[in-house]
Amino acid sequence: MDLAEALPLGELAAAFAALPVFPLFDTAYFIVSVLYLKYEPGAVEMSRKSPFASWLCAMLHCFGSYILADLLLGEAPIGYFSHNSSVILATAVWYLIFFCPMNLFYKCVSFLPVKLIFVAMKEVVRVRKIAAGVHHAHHLYHHGWFVMMATGWVKGSGVALMSNFEQLLRGVWKPETNEILHMSFPTKASLYGTVLFTLQQTHWLPISEANLIFFFTMFMIVCKVFMTATHSHASPFAPLENLICPFLFGSVSSGHPSHHHDHHGASHEVSHPPPPPPAKSKEELNEGTRKRKAKKAE
Amino acid sequence: MDLAEALPLGELAAAFAALPVFPLFDTAYFIVSVLYLKYEPGAVEMSRKSPFASWLCAMLHCFGSYILADLLLGEAPIGYFSHNSSVILATAVWYLIFFCPMNLFYKCVSFLPVKLIFVAMKEVVRVRKIAAGVHHAHHLYHHGWFVMMATGWVKGSGVALMSNFEQLLRGVWKPETNEILHMSFPTKASLYGTVLFTLQQTHWLPISEANLIFFFTMFMIVCKVFMTATHSHASPFAPLENLICPFLFGSVSSGHPSHHHDHHGASHEVSHPPPPPPAKSKEELNEGTRKRKAKKAE
Amino acid sequence: MDLAEALPLGELAAAFAALPVFPLFDTAYFIVSVLYLKYEPGAVEMSRKSPFASWLCAMLHCFGSYILADLLLGEAPIGYFSHNSSVILATAVWYLIFFCPMNLFYKCVSFLPVKLIFVAMKEVVRVRKIAAGVHHAHHLYHHGWFVMMATGWVKGSGVALMSNFEQLLRGVWKPETNEILHMSFPTKASLYGTVLFTLQQTHWLPISEANLIFFFTMFMIVCKVFMTATHSHASPFAPLENLICPFLFGSVSSGHPSHHHDHHGASHEVSHPPPPPPAKSKEELNEGTRKRKAKKAE
């Protein structure tokens, strides 16, 4: 039992962690996800010409986290689609956002104050998914730390991690970038979050799961609401990364949101494809050429 | 018990549904599938230069439905390959079609009257696969309607749904189109069929499984034989879709087979990549631009 | 019991097959795999800019065989990552090869005599993986010959079979070639090896598993060490293939390592993308055109 539990905060956190996500929070998650699908270039035309493909894309956006987690753990990727009510709800959201007469529903949900509420609610679901993913993996692999972290991560990131293939479904192919090479804020936050939840699950972090869910959710809500409201693209992790990465990896990790050249997922903080690589030392250049020639021969 | 069962038709349908598909109907399925592989540009050269890759493509064409269904349901995608006799039979068909001296086997099976018989027999297998897929999924997820429909659909469509990746195996990459964005006739028919079979399985459609198999197979045979014999490309679903889609989705669904610009699967009714999108209203254009800028900032 | 067992060779082979691969041989496997990742164009820049993506690529190189085998058999692809010590060891190897001050570690392990030892040790692990894969598949599918061969093959080939997607993770996309279309030496050797091990497992090859492991490992070590040391690219299978393939498939199988145009995996013998196809007979050309027109119509 940690300090926070002695305070009423502990009860608040426990009640918060026990909040049912279906149907209200899930609906908000679906709305934000499908909104961001609609922002993608060509998405509206696709909904008119190939409504089934559009619906399938929307389902990937809404349930991508479950699909990826099930794929990782060798379970049925289609398994979550047995929750008929969730699928019908997501379908209804998709239909209203794309086909509501006079675009009424879209205009309502994208009204900024309303949208900010939905964005906050989506983060509640995201953090709960990370926790559930880590928990589920812990149940299957008691000491599989990397498995827990991977499962939590894909549950938190969702469709972003399969963005190349979600785009392929829409007839778009951008192999030069992907969510792992250039992480957006939610993906990176999910990665850090899954590490925290794994440390908590394995008792290395002395905090209860309910408190961690509460605090991490608050952090995510503040960041995402701020970024959505101000159209800011400063990563809150940048100061810490700029401190640690040069020491560990010899340079600044590329996540700096200087430009927004192309975006591959609406809910993502976009990052510019990396600038030309820094000039290598003469030694490294010669070595690389020599090794490539040797490798070719092999 | 429905009316059709009271007639001898019921007995005919029951006997038809109980027909063993192995080896005769399966052989026909393999022959038509590998024939269509041979039609693909570059397939013959590939069989000479990379026979193993050619064989693997043929296996995808013959067993793609099982692979996809197993992938969806979290079962071993390689599982069906434990049926050694089926694999050996499919291998023999591949070898004869590609390497028979003087192309004798190919000439025999592609003689139109003979080919039409094989096409009809292939449709028997397709419909049986859809029914089996829905049945299997129902066994695993009693109330998983979407799971049943998805499983039946991939069983019916087969390799077409993974055409991008089957082409990738041949060194071809066409990301601008895929079978979901531009559905060919068999894929669309499998989609409608799986809905019917799911409604039947969940007792919403008052017809026995044997009768549904019989009638749907007759429908598929008539359509495919007619389309193959006349080189027609009119979709039998077009009238109904042109009635419903504008009402539901605001425009005609793009499946109109006006041109045959590129084909991605020989057994598929090809559809032209969609024409340039209709001019958007000024409001939609402004909105889209404004939203993309906002999304970039996020 | 076969002849070799009567000799001390049998005891040597048995002791050899019982050698534990962790941690020494596994470390050598990781070192060679990550070395070859480092040779890839852009890999060093990626490690500086996107260290997480670089780490993930290294994990694919080190554990690709387990991931693919689990995918094929419907087990959790992330399952092997529950072996924390292996993952930590591979991570340490990755870090040292990419980030060791003054590149010391890299210089040590790529010193040719040292590298040759590691290459030999890697082949020990490769052959053991093939045997284990066939054995595991045999346990699940007693008579699934093709399943056994496929599992052994992916265990032996590892990341090479998913090279297109490993490259995609690095932002590289080369759809015109893949490891199945143009097999490198290790992939082809794994294919032949898995056939031998399957024949042995099903008692068609009268040799004990220990002896087969021993002799096949010796063969692989001799070939790979020779090819690495001399930068040779002559395939040891070419004479046999040039004898059999024209008879079976009508032409020489394309594996001839005449040019090294592009490489997609450092441990692979590179092969030139196929030259323009040989002139087809007038009959084949007409037939192809006619069939494509007919297919388009369908």
From TrEMBL, chains A, B, C:
<dbReference type="Pfam" id="PF05197">
    <property type="entry name" value="TRIC"/>
</dbReference>
<feature type="region of interest" description="Disordered">
    <location>
        <begin position="256"/>
        <end position="298"/>
    </location>
</feature>
<feature type="transmembrane region" description="Helical">
    <location>
        <begin position="210"/>
        <end position="227"/>
    </location>
</feature>
<feature type="transmembrane region" description="Helical">
    <location>
        <begin position="52"/>
        <end position="73"/>
    </location>
</feature>
<keyword id="KW-0813">Transport</keyword>
<keyword id="KW-0407">Ion channel</keyword>
<dbReference type="InterPro" id="IPR007866">
    <property type="entry name" value="TRIC_channel"/>
</dbReference>
<keyword id="KW-0812">Transmembrane</keyword>
<comment type="subunit">
    <text>Homotrimer; conformation seems to be controled by binding to diacylglycerol (DAG).</text>
</comment>
<keyword id="KW-0472">Membrane</keyword>
<dbReference type="GO" id="GO:0005267">
    <property type="term" value="F:potassium channel activity"/>
</dbReference>
<keyword id="KW-0630">Potassium</keyword>
<protein>
    <recommendedName>
        <fullName>Trimeric intracellular cation channel type A</fullName>
    </recommendedName>
</protein>
<keyword id="KW-0703">Sarcoplasmic reticulum</keyword>
<dbReference type="GO" id="GO:0031965">
    <property type="term" value="C:nuclear membrane"/>
</dbReference>
<dbReference type="GO" id="GO:0033017">
    <property type="term" value="C:sarcoplasmic reticulum membrane"/>
</dbReference>
<dbReference type="GO" id="GO:0042802">
    <property type="term" value="F:identical protein binding"/>
</dbReference>
<feature type="compositionally biased region" description="Basic and acidic residues">
    <location>
        <begin position="280"/>
        <end position="289"/>
    </location>
</feature>
<keyword id="KW-0631">Potassium channel</keyword>
<feature type="transmembrane region" description="Helical">
    <location>
        <begin position="12"/>
        <end position="32"/>
    </location>
</feature>
<keyword id="KW-0539">Nucleus</keyword>
<keyword id="KW-0406">Ion transport</keyword>
<keyword id="KW-1133">Transmembrane helix</keyword>
<comment type="function">
    <text>Intracellular monovalent cation channel required for maintenance of rapid intracellular calcium release. Acts as a potassium counter-ion channel that functions in synchronization with calcium release from intracellular stores. Opened by a change of voltage within the sarcoplasmic reticulum lumen.</text>
</comment>
<feature type="transmembrane region" description="Helical">
    <location>
        <begin position="80"/>
        <end position="98"/>
    </location>
</feature>
<keyword id="KW-0633">Potassium transport</keyword>
<comment type="similarity">
    <text>Belongs to the TMEM38 family.</text>
</comment>
